[in-house]
Design a protein that fits this description.
With 162 residues, this protein is of the alpha+beta class. Helix content is 17%, strand content 39%.
């Protein structure tokens, strides 16, 4: 089967394999030596993230998409200074406009499930806190859970600036 590539195709090499990305359909293609054909790469979900296998290695789909648009970026560098963040906080939205390269800490600033408070049995109050540079900042104790949450949300505006 011959594949007719549209003008909006990007290419990259990951794990020694040439890949093509159709910007219109979102499909990722890989050339298979055994069949001598281009085939669409399969994608699966793992812990809320889309994954893709390239050769003998699995990659997060959002990292692969980012690599297509940023060919000089090192996809295999998993250091704390090389995270790919979903700006919207939704891990299944892998369009390039929703992805950015940030450090590990900034990657967690827009986490949608972050709570920033917990029940303190010793005081019978809600303890609000925020984490910055691996250190917890105490925001106060509150009788009402909503007040603890609001304290956390206000602190995010100050401390979690991207």
């Amino acid at each position: 089967m011959a594949v007719n590539w549209k003008f909006c195709t990007l290419t990259t090499v990951i794990n020694g394999r040439e890949l093509k990305y159709d910007m219109e359909t979102g499909e990722i293609w890989s050339f298979h030596l055994r069949s001598n054909k281009w085939k669409v790469k399969s994608i699966w979900t793992h812990h809320g993230y889309l994954k893709i296998r390239i050769g003998n290695k699995g990659y997060s789909h959002h990292r692969v998409i980012y690599k297509f648009y940023n060919p000089g970026w090192n996809i295999d560098d998993y250091s704390k200074d090389n995270s790919i963040d979903h700006i919207s906080g939704h891990t299944d939205e892998n369009q390039i406009g929703n992805l950015r390269n940030v450090n590990h800490q900034k990657n967690h600033f827009n986490e949608t499930k972050a709570k920033g408070y917990r029940w303190c049995e010793r005081l019978n109050k809600w303890h609000a806190y925020i984490t910055l540079n691996s250190k917890q900042i105490h925001l106060g104790y509150f009788v009402v859970e909503a007040d603890a949450r609001n304290a956390y949300l206000e602190a995010k505006k100050i401390y979690h600036i991207i």
